[in-house]
Amino acid sequence: MPSPGNATPTSRRFSVPFCLLGMILAGVPAPSAGSTAVEQQAADTLDHVVGIVRSADGGMPLAGATATVVSTGGHAVTHGDGSFRIAVPDAERYRLRIDRLGYAAVAVDVRPGEMVTVDLEVAAIPLPDVVVTAVLSPTAANETIRPSAVFAGEKLQRQLAATLAQTVESVPGVAVTSMGPGTSQPVIRGLGGDRILVLEDGQRVGDVLSSGADHATATPPSSARRIEVIRGPSAILYGSNALGGVINVVRDEVPRAAPYRATGFTSLSGRGATRGLGGSSQVTVGVTEHIPLRIEASMHQAGDLRTPIGRLEGTQVDTWGVAAGTSWVDDWGYAGGAFRFYSNDYGIPGGFLGGHTNAVRTEQERAASRFRSVIRPGGGLEAIELDAGYTWYRHHEWEPPDILGTLFERQIASGEARARHAGWGPFASGAVGARVSWEHFGFGGALYTPNSGRRTQAAYVIEEIQLDPVSIEAGLRYDRVELEPNEEEQSEIGHTRARSFDAMSGSLGALLPLTGQFTVGASVARAFRTPDVNELYSEGPHLAANSYDVGNPSLGMETGLGIDVFGRVAGRHLSAEATWFRNTIEGYIFPQATGELSRIRLPIYQYVGENAVLTGFESLLGWSIPAGLKLEAVASYVRGTLRATNEPLPFMPPLQGRLAVGYSPVDWFVEAEARLASSQERTGQFEQSTDGYAVLGLSGGVRLTVAGRLHVVTLNLANLGNTEYRNHLSRVKEIMPEAGRSVSVAYRVVF
After folding, report:
1. Is the pTM of this model over 0.70?
2. CB-based contact 478:458 (threshold 8 Å)
3. Contact, 530 vs 557, CB < 8 A?
4. pLDDT (tens digit per residue) in 575-608
5. pLDDT digits (tens, 9 = 90+) for 28-77
6. Is 72 helix (H, G, I), strand (E, B) or coil?
7. Burial, 516: exposed, middle or buried (Cβ in 10 Å; 0-12, 13-18, 19+)?
8. CB 84, CB 78: distance < 8 Å
9. 3-state secondary structure of 111
10. How far apart are CA 595 and CA 568, in angstroms?
């Protein structure tokens, strides 16, 4: 068994060459669009979309703009002369979207083979981005039934952090819980853990994030092309674990098109709060006109978190990952596969009352492979989507000196098929699908949970109906989940036995445009979550989390009824959204602190199921003036209550918000912000209250076009006042506050 801390030499050996490869490719000067015979004939070819992107002010060609064919997802980055070329299957017309930092995005209809010229205008508030998660086809964010947020381009670079949760925490309704900088987990509308579904290109990650507050996600954000956050129940397409929402990290690991030149990006970052350094590089090349190849590498290394009162010792992080994917692309669609490996070595702090004497080291390893194919048969059937995957995951928690405290292992094999139909009468689009999966859970060390298996079968149907001016979405899903421990026995926690659950989920939502810019909508959804293996069968110490977990083999299934009502404004200079939600959950499962200590002096947590209700609101306001000045205000609140006793649910985020003012001309930007939170006095049993805070920050950056490539450098000054404040959801807030004053810098080049 390897001892902790051996990942550093490996990460440097594997990741750095790939990052350097990306930088070398990025530095090669981009030839003009007319420099090759292939591109000179582009306008005569009927299976390509070709064009030029320019600035509306003076007609200057724009490098680094992203041109995307909305229906297929094929995309290209413009060269130094503003040109692009994208392969498309046979069709009469396509919707093309052009995005470029500092400019308002434009969507236009184009015909294959026709040269299109797109002029972009400077704008501080971009066009609403396109969402691909929890929808049948790519949809503008302001036209989705569920509240959503998209991180892409410059917005992703500005918000990019060391973990996925920290990257998306600026979204209304999203908070972060952690036991140190390496373990940040997302919380959406007060729900976290197994109630938030984290996806990678639409597929489940397969880690053990939900099994403890000390667990990190095995999904690094640094190599993402975009990240999408869907708030609210999303069970129809994803089944269990989507009571609170969905976070999808989109990388396009299986490439959907063969580029005519190498495309990708390289990014580097440094973070002062942890003395962290990181980088990622991704490149996609066209081996032939039918075979693309995508290669990716990333790494991140950091030391202890620095706070206004000292270091949070034992919180170092060392991660690295590599991935590769390829496919066959043709007029009928594409089919291909991808492989990814990820390693993470991080620390959990110790040396405090109620914790460990010394820090605990945790090692994660994840290997995942997948197959994906999209077939476009034509006629009334828009696409047939086939997905299959296998994930192996292993997680060690080491007690000093190199003693294995806890071991988690997980394997998942899954397959899914979905058929989407095109418009038919009032039905704008729709789909039917089925999914099966098999999972194995293994445990070791001091954790006494029995090895177990889980099988899932599901079928669903979803339809989008257009009854002008109202748009309606309706869906229905059936799931059967079977869990079985290796051995059936009568133990101290009860009768450990096989369990099976049958669940029906349904959703109904509607959008009504009242004016060209103002839309109202509402949705109601019934979702479910089956208890996981730990909640049913755990019996023993979870050392890194400093808890003694006691399961309940008789727990029932969680069922949630979620209601959303919202209004949206999407204008050229004004964007706003306000949402009220209520989520009633029958059999809400949580580890309840008993106030007792186990025989090895760890606090005992017993899993129980109680009826609960969570109610709250989310709001977002953005306003800009033509000069490039932008104002933004965000606020959210959730109130969680146990219905039987009217007691607060534990670990609910307080009222929180963000105020920002920025100035963003074409070539540079600057922004000042204040992150705000009120005190939290509504606490669960044995939970401490926290004070409110206001933390100031300043960021800025420049956009440079060099050698036909767009280069962006961002500087961020966080916690300017070195404020000592505590995140209510932090599991170590009793001993250390959040990060102090720090500087971070990021560089990204797109090619």
Report:
1. yes
2. yes
3. yes
4. 999 999 999 999 999 887 777 777 767 778 888 8
5. 444 443 333 334 433 333 478 889 999 888 888 888 888 888 877 778 88
6. coil
7. exposed
8. yes
9. coil
10. 46
